[in-house]
Amino acid sequence: MTTVDTTEQTSRHTVAPLSSLPSFLRDEPGLTRALGDPSARLAVVEVARPISIAALAGLSSSRPLIVTCPTGTMAGQLADDLRQFLPADEVVLFPGWETLPFERVSPSVETMGLRLEVLWRLRHAERTPTVIVTGVRALLQKLGPGATSVDPVIVRPGAEIDPDALSATLVEFGYRREELVEHRGEFARRGAIIDIYPSTADAPIRIDLWGDEVDRLTTFGVNDQRSIGDVDEVLIFPARELMPTADVRERAAELVASEPWGREQWERLSEGVHFDGMESWLPWLIDDWQAGGGRLLTDVLPPSAKLLLVEPRRMRDRALDLIAEEDDLARTLASTWARDPDRSFPRLHADPDTLLSGTNAFWSIDSTPESPDTPLVEASGWGPVAGDGTGLTDRLTELIGRGFRVVVAADGTGSAAR
After folding, report:
1. Which are the contacts of 318, defined by CB distance < 8 A and separation ≥ 6?
2. 163: phi > 0 → left, psi -120 to 50 → alpha, else beta; which?
3. 261-302, pLDDT tens digit by residue?
4. Alpha helix segments (H runs only) across 259-311
């Protein structure tokens, strides 16, 4: 049993930063069995999932580890928890769209940017994260044409930039030109200063040019528009996941004749126009949609990647509900679009039965053992510590007296000493 916080040195206590705690599970029998079994099923109570998954990621030679949860909310919470045990940049979230299929509303700029950033990092071994956390919706969602080949604009101090070419690229990336930059996906140009709020950034950036050279690169505040601090590098990813590439324009032009009910949208897409809700038409723009095609996240993973499914039965139920919801929506919209409802409709999400049909080599985690032979990681949580903390110290004293090794980790030595 392992208890987590940093403590003063005694013969029965170990001092350790949070990031080193997963290594203490190296000899945990359940994890040891999983590391030796490429298709292991584990039983891990929810309170121990983050540290157990962090241990698997650190002890396994597989990179990256794709952790899939039943919902996007659970994925986001798990990603936050994993960042307590692994370097923050080594844990990334691959979010799904917040919008419904065929809904004429675009996903958030940040969601689309984060997805493109993950896909880009997967193409560069030196930038590939240790863990990618995602929900079943995002795992099943088909990727847009060209989404796996988009490169960001990289800006560094001292680099040379053509401001006209940069502005044109930002427009192509789906950024809106404004007088003042206040939201993600906006940029402004005032003489030798270019302000940009990248789709994946926490703050907007300001590029001060001296001729064509980046003289200074800083973040700035949205409220007062004043520069805050210098930065060494900025990666600017698109603000749209559906890019009006030549292939997309050609495919949209073909749809004008074959699917005349959507003529207005197809014409705008064929002309390379950005408009709100354009992503909702993505399923139609995948060339082999009639054959059930379309690339998924699992199709672009490196050979060294490993999948870990959290509560797989619940994942499957959620996936089937997602497909049924999409089919019901398609049939409803067919009448409003004057389209034959009996004709096949393109899906934004892949059939869950085919997702893992090519491999059985993935780990899975449930809260309870599936059978007596299921490896189990035993753990218990702590209740809230209030007042003088006597209950906590009594519990620690009891565990030490029973021969358990106690590792306490806190944010600082002062907290640990207390």
Report:
1. 70, 71, 136, 137
2. alpha
3. 889 999 999 999 999 999 999 988 886 544 445 689 998 999
4. 263-270
Q: Which residue's entry shows tokens 């990289």? A: 154
pTM of the model: 0.88
101 has pLDDT over 60: yes
Cα–Cα dist 158/211, whole Å: 11
Closest CA to 287 of 144, 116, 174: 144
Q: Find out whether the peptide bond into 107 is cis, omega within 30 degrees of 0.
A: no
Nearest CA among 310, 308, 309, 295 for reference residue 349: 295
The CA distance from 375 to 365, in Å, is 10
Contacts 24+ apart (CB under 8 A), 159-162: 159/213, 159/214, 160/212, 160/213, 160/214, 161/207, 161/209, 161/212, 161/213, 161/214, 162/212
Give the pair of three-digit tokens for residue 337. 């679009």
Distances (CA, A) of 356 to 22, 190, 288, 291: 28, 51, 20, 18
pLDDT tens digits, one per residue of 116-170: 999 999 999 999 999 999 999 999 999 988 898 999 999 999 999 999 999 999 9
Q: What is the pLDDT of residue 98?
A: 92
CB 51 within 8 A of CB 24: no
What H or E segment, with its residue span, contains residue 213?
strand 213-220
Q: What is the phi/psi pair of residue 316, to 5°?
A: -65, -45
Taking the CB of residue 175, how many other CB atoms lie within 10 A of it? 25
Q: How many CB atoms lie within 10 A of CB 263?
A: 12
User: DSSP labels for 104-136?
Assistant: SSPPPHHHHHHHHHHHHHHT-GGG--SEEEEEH
The predicted model gives 390-405 an average pLDDT of 79
